[in-house]
User: Fold this.
Amino acid sequence: MKQMTIALAAALGLAAAALAENVKLPEPRKTGGMPLMEALAKRATSRRTAGEAPTPQQLSDLLWAANGVTRPDGKRTAPSAMDKREIEIAVLTRDGLFTWDPVANELVETPACVDLSAELRGASALLVYHYNKAIQDREAALADCGFVGQNVYLFCASEGWKTVFLGTVDRVTLAVALGRGEDEILFAQRIGVK
Assistant:
């Protein structure tokens, strides 16, 4: 019954996604910021991630730092095993749930068929890391996800924001909301914008 409910919700989510509109983000700022060694020294975990809603520019900069495209050949800010680029990022804000297209630098609205407010917990944003298991195995994806999470930690340190990497998330609810398999949801990371 649980599998049938998840499959039905996923199908409804996919149908709603077809009607969703893309939100083109501004070009990410790729200069400035804190020197790397200083960002490493200031990198910290904080569970107090309540904060202002991120602006489109802040989301663009954050997502590009996480796993953005850096070169014409599609290489990213985070490495991936055999250059599979399987890590995908969903973004939950007070405005809704989105999936991020790193090539187009667009947010694609993903109408949530479940209440995700408990996952956001007042944070500025929640990044949900999932992977495409058709192109990569789970073990490699877990390692690749760690690279993305560290990029986010360093970006947040540079910006003076708060962040926490979450190993425990409601994978069933997130899988239903994203139309993915429960095993495809890897981790999440809450962000607090100052």
Summary: The chain has six helices and seven strands. The radius of gyration is 16 Å. Strands lie at 22-24, 87-93, 96-101, 106-109, 125-131, 162-166, 185-192.
